From TrEMBL:
This is Cu-processing system ATP-binding protein. PANTHER family: ABC TRANSPORTER, ATP-BINDING PROTEIN (PTHR43335). Residues 5-229 form the ABC transporter domain. The lineage of its organism: Bacteria, Pseudomonadati, Pseudomonadota, Alphaproteobacteria, Hyphomicrobiales. Keywords: ATP-binding, Nucleotide-binding, Transport. It comes from Aquamicrobium ahrensii.
C-alpha cells in the first residue's frame, strides 16, 4: 500500500519539555486515523511538524515522499484547525473563491466544493450568520482544494451537534473512499471508535499504542462483560450457576471474564437453555482501552 505519511523515531523538544519522543507512524492512502491523547500529549505538535510549521530535533518525517513544508508536500496536504475563523462579512462562496485563487486554482470551483460539504444552500450568505457546524464545513471545503492526499484535522467535530458530527464523518468517509488519507485528533472517543480505521494513542509525548480497534483490544487484553437476562422464575438458579456475577439494577447478571474465557462461558450460558431470556456480550470500549494505555503510562 502507498504511504502518504511516514514518521520514524520523531523527537521534538521545547526547551525542557519533550513534546514528542521516538514516535513512529505510517499513514496509508484511504485510511482514517484518529490521534488520541490527553491535553499536552503531543498531538498538535505532531500536526505542526507534519505541516512543516515547526522543525523537529530527531527522526524523519516524509509527506507523500517529500519533506514536510516543502512545496511538493504542501501541494498534497490540507489542514483544518480546531477553530477555523473566517471574515464575518464574507459569504462562504467568497471565502472559498479567495482560497482557490491563493492556491492558483479556478475560483469557479467554489460552488462545487461547497456543494460537496452540504453548504451550497448557504453559499451566498455572510459567514457572520453561520453556525459553528456551517463554519466547520467551510473549513472542510477549504481543505478539499486541489484534491489533497493527506488531510490533517485538529478536533474537527468539537462544538458540533450530534447530527452535524455524523454528517461530518459521512463526508470524511467519502473523502477516504476517494483515496485521501485522514489524520484527525479528537477527544470524543465514541465517534472515533465507530468512524476511523486505525487509532494512535499518544501519552506524554510517546506512542502508547497504535492499531485497529480490534488490535488494540487484543493488546490491552481487557475483560469482556456478559449481561445475562434470566427468564422469569430462573433468577436464583442463574445466580447460583454464575457465582462470580453481580446483579444489575435492571435484574440482569453481569459477568466479567478474560477474552480467553469468553467462549467457554458462552457455552455455559447456552447450555442453560430456556432459563436464559437474553444475553449481551459487551467488548471493552475505546474509552476502556484508552484509559488502560493512558493509565499504564501514569497519565
Ligand atoms: N511553543 C511551545 N513552547 C513550549 N512548550 C510547548 C510549545 N508547544 C507545545 N508545548 C508543550 O509540548 C507538550 C505537547 O503539547 P501539544 O500542544 O502538542 O499537546 P496536545 O496533545 O495537542 O494537547 P491538547 O489536547 O491540549 O491540544 C505540552 O507539554 C506543551 O506544553
Amino acid at each position: 500500500m502507498t504511504s502518504t505519511l511516514q514518521i520514524s523515531r520523531l523527537t521534538k523538544r521545547f526547551q525542557t519539555v519533550e513534546a514528542l519522543r521516538d514516535v513512529s507512524l505510517r499513514l496509508e492512502l484511504g485510511k482514517r486515523v484518529a490521534l488520541l491523547g490527553h491535553n499536552g500529549a503531543g498531538k498538535s505538535t505532531m500536526m505542526k511538524i507534519i505541516l512543516g510549521l515547526i522543525p523537529f530535533d530527531n527522526g524523519s518525517v516524509t509527506v507523500c515522499g517529500s519533506a514536510p513544508g516543502s512545496a511538493a508536500a504542501r501541494a498534497q496536504v490540507a489542514y483544518l484547525p480546531e477553530n477555523a475563523s473566517f471574515h464575518p462579512a464574507l459569504t462562504g462562496e467568497e471565502q472559498i473563491r479567495y482560497y482557490l485563487a491563493l492556491r492558483g486554482e479556478d475560483p469557479k470551483q467554489a460552488m462545487g466544493l461547497l456543494e460537496k460539504v452540504g453548504l451550497a444552500h448557504a453559499a451566498r450568505r455572510r459567514m457572520g450568520g453561520y453556525s459553528k457546524g456551517m463554519r466547520q464545513r467551510v473549513g472542510l471545503a477549504q481543505t478539499l482544494i486541489g484534491k489533497p492526499r493527506l488531510l490533517v484535522l485538529d478536533e474537527p467535530t468539537s462544538g458540533l451537534d450530534p447530527v452535524s458530527r455524523r454528517d461530518f464523518y459521512d463526508l470524511l468517509d467519502g473523502l477516504a473512499a476517494d483515496g485521501a488519507a485522514i489524520l484527525l485528533s479528537s477527544h470524543v472517543l465514541t465517534e472515533v471508535e465507530a468512524r476511523t480505521d486505525r487509532i494512535v494513542i499518544l501519552s506524554g509525548g510517546h506512542l502508547a499504542a497504535e492499531g485497529t480497534l480490534a488490535e488494540l483490544r487484543g493488546q490491552a487484553a481487557l475483560p469482556v462483560v456478559l449481561l445475562i437476562t434470566p427468564a422469569p422464575g430462573s433468577e436464583t438458579a442463574l445466580a447460583a450457576a454464575f457465582p462470580q456475577s453481580a446483579r444489575t439494577q435492571d435484574g440482569r447478571l453481569r459477568v466479567c471474564c478474560e477474552q480467553a474465557r469468553k467462549l467457554p462461558l458462552l457455552s455455559q450460558v447456552t447450555a442453560l437453555g430456556a432459563q436464559v431470556a437474553d444475553l449481551d456480550v459487551i467488548p471493552p470500549s475505546l474509552e476502556d482501552i484508552y484509559s488502560h494505555f493512558s493509565r499504564r503510562d501514569g497519565q
